Each structure stands twice: as C-alpha cells, then as structure tokens.
C-alpha cells in the first residue's frame, strides 16, 4: 500500500502491477524502465505477499543481471511496511546515495512500534500465542491487543489495558478493519504519548497477516524528515568490497555481498 505523502518533498511511490499474474515480459519491461529512469530501484515487499510475487521479483532481478535492484522484505505487519516505505520515500529527497538509502530500511525498522487490536487470535501465527489465549479467543466479544514489533506482546483487553510503547516521541497511524472499537485512539495513543494521530486505509494484506478481518491495525513512527535524516547519517557507512556502493551495515543491499572474513594471524610456534 502506498501511503499519501507526508510532506511536499516526499518522492511519489511506484506501485508494481500484479506480478503474480502478469506476463514475465511485462514485469521485465516495467523494471527496466524504472532502472533507466532512476538508476536504482528499492522494492519494499511484505512477508505476507504471495510466493508467486516474490518469485517473480527474484526472477526479474536475475534475468536483468542487475545489481541496481534491492529487494527488502522486513518482518513487519502490512501497515508498518507501508510506513517504512513512506519513510524511505521521504529520505529519497535528500542527498543520500542509493546504497545508504536502501540500507536505511533496516535501521529504521528499529524505530517502529507496530501492532493491532484483534477480535480473535485463533489464526494468528506470526507471533507466539499461548493455548490460554487461543481458548479465550473463542469467547464472544473477546478482544486482544497485540504488539508484533519490536518485541512480541499480547494482552487480553480490559479496563485501562495497554501495550508497551516507544520511549521517544512518535506519531500514530491507525487503519481500521471490521472491528468497532476506539481503544487504539482513546487508550493506546494517550498511554504512548503520541504527538499526532492519523488514519489510513487498511492494507489489503492485513487480514491475512493477522489471521482475522476483525482488527484495528496501528503503527507508531518517526514522522519528521530531519529526524530520519539525522538517524541515517549518524551511522557509519562502508563501501561494498564487491560492487563499491556505499552501504550501512555488513551486507550490501544490492549485490548481497558481505565483507570477507579477516584471517587471523598465525601464532608463532
């Protein structure tokens, strides 16, 4: 899902077509056009995406023999994926190299708090759910607050019940499914001391990811471009030993190379 721009500098998103259904020739042509126009392409894809979509992305990258396509599939709920993609679009307007921008995705995931209010956890398999909670999920009217990231946490709803939140200032994005509840906006948001709250459409993959359509999904995030830029530029950058691009971390997001292991000097006999 492509979220609306956060500000006037946010780079527009390019939503790829139905990769699981369209012809391979069309997928190749569309990706080649993006590379020709922009030089490098960062594909942000949910773990809930169908296998056919992921396989097509890998096939396209392989056939184009291109080290200018980065495929990023963080283990985040769909709404958090959309938030992260928008943050990268915000940063794309800055003076960051393609490798640093693509690497920033892994860094920024640490500053997301993502979860949902669920009407049932009977089919939730993305985070640990004990048998007691499973049993309670069959009781009519039961609701559960679930934090999927950064640390899995599950609570059964009750008066003033909340979830552990961020220890820094954030904004909250809320996407409502088929669960009539204002707990996220009236209880969770104040307890997390969010500085702003906005609503968005529920991503198409949310029901499959959470195992139910009776949900309200939410994601707390850093909204300010200046803060995001400072976070990214404060981290040490490295040059990939294989393709030479600047990256953050120990793995190149474009060619997937990792630094060679340093050989330990032999001990003197």
Topology:
Blueprint: H1 24-38, E1 41-44, H2 51-64, E2 69-72, H3 78-91, H4 98-108, E3 113-118, H5 131-136, E4 144-149, E5 153-156, E6 171-176, H6 183-192, E7 196-200, H7 206-210, E8 215-221, H8 225-233, E9 237-239, E10 246-248
Parallel strand pairs: 1-2, 6-7
Antiparallel strand pairs: 3-4, 3-8, 4-5, 6-8, 9-10
Main sheet properties: 6 strands, mixed
Number of strands: 10
The SSE string, one letter per element, is HEHEHHEHEEEHEHEHEE
The mean pLDDT is 87
The number of distinct structural domains comes to 2
Q: Which structural class matches the secondary elements? A: alpha+beta
Distinct helical segment count: 8
The largest sheet has its strands arranged as 5-4-3-8-6-7
Question: What is the 3D shape?
Answer: globular
Helix content: 25-40%
Taking the alpha carbons of the first and last residues, their distance comes to 62 Å
Radius of gyration: 20 Å
Strand content: 15-25%
Low-confidence stretches: 262-269
Write out key terms for the chains shown.
269 residues; 31% helix; single chain; Hypothetical Protein Tm841, Chain: A,domain 3; 8 helices
